[in-house]
Amino acid sequence: GGNLPASAARANYPLVIDDQTFLVGCSFMISAGPTYDWSFGGTPGLYRTTNKGGNWTQVSDKAVFEEPLVVNDTIYWTFYNTNTLSGGLLRSDDKGATWTVATATGLLWSCRPVLLPDGRIGMINSSNCIAASSDHGATWTAITPAITVPTPWGFTYNAPGKAFFAWQSSGENNNPVNGIVVRLDMDITQVRSAVSPGKP
Q1: What's residue 197's pLDDT?
Q2: Could you give the percent of the chain with pLDDT greater than 70?
Q3: What is the DSSP string of the chain?
């Protein structure tokens, strides 16, 4: 990333497409060590190289956060919407060369997209519920009650245990409310049958 523009925000989130093509997400908010202070600075965006970092092209001006989700030939990346102070979801179908806004607002910007066992995409919405989309992020349906932690940070689904596990923050400091993990028992097959059918 040494050839990234000097004005770019810190490059926190890389994605390797192949031996020549990389993507890197530059966000303006970063964790700054054990005190969990926030650092602001630089221009956010999503950058792409096709020559191992020899030069970079900005392919989106969104402040992307967390790791992206790759499903077949589609890439999903969470971003922070500075106008609504909420999260959205970017989508690319051409290895990151171009991006469209799949979801403009209403998602938790700190949550990375998750592929659910039934083929849908899962995210946490602004009501702290786990929501699922069967149309690439165009629409969302809440599939759980609100997660019972003050500020959920992410989640995963355990198919054998038929349960979602969600957590708050990362436990990087000594605040007792950080690092909380909660379990939501739910059979995703039953959830699937309760919502409108759609193409995964």
Answers
A1: 42
A2: 82
A3: -TTS-TTBPPEEEEEE-SSS-EEEEE-SEEE-STT--EEE-SB-EEEEESSTTSS-EEEE-SEEEEEEEEETTEEEEEEEETTTTEEEEEEESSTTSS-EEEEEEEE-TTPPPEE-TTS-EEEEBTTSEEEEESSTTSS-EEEEEEPSSSSEEEEEEETTTTEEEEEES---SS-TTTT-EEEEE--HHHHHHTS-----
